[in-house]
Amino acid sequence: MTYSISGNYLQSCSCAVVCGCSVDAQPRDPKGGTECRGATVFHIAEGHLNDTDLAGVDFAFYNLFPSHLTAGDWKVGVVIDNGASDAQADALGRILSGAEGGTFGELAQFIGEFLGTERGEVSLTDGDAPSLEVAGHSRVTYEPLLGADGTPTTVRNAMFGLSAEYGIGRTSGTSEAFGLTFEPSYGEKADFVYSSDPEPGAPKGR
Predict the structure, then answer these.
(1) Low-confidence ranges of the chain (pLDDT < 70)
(2) Is the dihedral of CA 100, 108, 199, 79 positive or negative?
(3) What is the CA angle 116-117-123, rounded to 5?
């Protein structure tokens, strides 16, 4: 079986700016806590699992990382948008569980507890005012950090980056799902490409 999905994402977590999870550092939040709680909404612009077309599907990935990422024991939960068909939701569930290998198959070894999959309203807004919303769970806005030339600050080639290069910033709002409540602080956004046969040296994802 083969899959490929690509699109864009917006991520928010409890870590102080800048979150160190992507380089396997110990999480730190603004109040001194040492775990990372987060929510990431993905929009699939193009994608498939075998003959199942996944274009247009939105989903949210919730996480609790109790320590640096390679220490494992992650807790994760997923919300798939109501607009996805049952076949699309099933295909996406197989990809995210790691059952289809590739990018997510590599990450499955670190998951200690899967908190479940829900269906709900999931949306991602890009452009001048990036935001994510998962009805009844999360509503978050994003503001990029800017460099000296006024363009967004980016990170490249991070071990656990969600993308080969991504913008970083601050987030604000509220989030609670699967018992994982957190106060948004750090954020990032970028395009993504994941597949069952990732290119050598591609980011492991996060």
Answers:
(1) 198-206
(2) positive
(3) 135
